[in-house]
Amino acid sequence: MSDFITRFQAFINKNQLFSKDARILLAVSGGLDSVVMAHLFQRAGWHIAIAHCNFQLRGAASDADALFVVELARKLGIPCFSTAFDTQVFAERHNMSIQMAARELRYNWLENIRQLIDYQNIATAHHQNDAIETFLYNFTKGAGIRGLQGLPMRNGCIIRPLLFATKAELAQLAETWGCAYREDASNAEDKYARNAIRHQVVPVLKQLNTALEQTAAANFQYLGDALQLYEWALKQIRRAVLQETANGWRIDRQQLQQYPAAATLLYEWLHPMGFSADQLTQALQARTGATFQAQSYILLVDRSFFIIEKKAYITEKEQFIIHSDVEELLLPVGKLTFEYKTGRPAYLNPDPFVVYLDAETLHFPLMLRHWQPGDYFYPLGLDGKRQKLHRFFINQKLPLTEKSRIWLLTSGQAICWVLGMRADERFKISPDTRAYWVIHFQQL
């Protein structure tokens, strides 16, 4: 079996799983796969330690597994770490399946031990057959291209150095070396999905292709190559159509539609923010003004863009009461300064962030607030015609998400100034003006 050890070392070196001087923590259950892995690492001469989790799900058998692993480590001259969990209680407390609970407990503890003893990697004993079962499980439950990779050789600090081997090869090696190991009776039951796949689905596939493991390994390699191309294309297209803004992102709708699988592109970029595939498919077909909510983000379909922002920006509801003795008002985004003057101004500053309002038309206290649905005013320069703010924003080509951040200065129920954009006709300086207010909005 020296040939097997050579293959083992070649697989590690080819895929650069770890360096020659690395210290590896082996996750050993006591079953055939992990016991063979421990023997392989020990015979190959790497610096290793063993870690075992007792999930206390099979009574005395679980305790016997723990004792077996401790004794195995002693015989191999390897340091051993062992712990026990009340997995049933943890699963009930966190509303998780037993399998998911055991997985979380296991990997969290292994990572803590790895850091404690300053080891570089955690090795698990997953092999080619495990990869096939994972592929079939993910395919059945629904998965994208990443879920159809079988099992990755590396996931952070976790490595899987036996993915080159089949279950049958590991069993043959255990027999040749005379490796004792523990049998988990639950592996023979079909109550778990993976066991059902192992006992009922894989044998049928093996009848169709006796070299199933080798074929699957080749397919996983092809899928891995395809995934690399996929990830590369995602990055290239993202650079072309997605722009970062001060408050989030925007995606050029027309440019996005020029690429194939636009819904998939949106999903890849926005699913991490909590948007579902159905929402993003609907967004591609939605009309301007449609919005889609995730937990912390909102997606708005604008005229030319998909605009994505954190909800904190969308739902801002600050209001400020302004009395006649005010000189300066500090805001989250800047400040307002107020100056009362008599007579009529000789010069009107054209700066949109400066406004001149007839003092007699203002009724204090004034209010500073954000836009609300139904708001309207009489824009200066529109011959006294009334216009809804929603329409005014559209005419100004203001992105729809921006309207929620526009400040409005109101006198009673009337809007007298849309800050930085337009004053109201009813409050303008006229030939009859005898006193006026100059208000300056200074943005941060």
Count of DSSP-assigned helices: 14
Strand count: 22
Distance between the termini: 72 Å
Portion in helices: 25-40%
* Cα Rg: 34 Å
Percent of residues in beta strands: 15-25%
* Strand order of the biggest β-sheet: 3-2-1-4-6-5
Give the low-confidence spans: none
Shape: elongated
- Global mean pLDDT: 90
Chain oligomer state: single chain
Task: Quickly give the structural class.
Answer: alpha+beta
For the largest beta-sheet, the strand count, sense and barrel status come to: 6 strands, mixed
List keywords for this structure.
six-stranded mixed sheet, 444 residues, alpha+beta, elongated, five-stranded antiparallel sheet, 14 helices
Please outline what is shown here.
Helix content is 39%, strand content 22%. The chain has 444 residues and is of the alpha+beta class.
Descriptive report:
The protein is α+β, with helices and mostly antiparallel strands. Helix content is 39%, strand content 22%. The protein has a six-stranded mixed β-sheet, with helices on both faces. The protein has a five-stranded antiparallel β-sheet with strand order 7-8-11-10-9.
Layout of secondary structure:
Elements: H1 2-14, E1 23-27, H2 32-44, E2 47-54, H3 60-76, E3 80-84, H4 87-93, H5 98-116, E4 121-123, H6 128-141, E5 154-155, E6 158-159, H7 167-177, H8 193-208, H9 212-241, E7 242-244, E8 248-252, H10 253-257, H11 262-270, H12 277-285, E9 291-293, E10 297-301, E11 305-310, H13 311-314, E12 320-322, E13 328-331, E14 334-342, E15 354-358, E16 366-370, E17 376-377, E18 387-388, H14 389-395, E19 407-411, E20 414-418, E21 422-423, E22 435-443
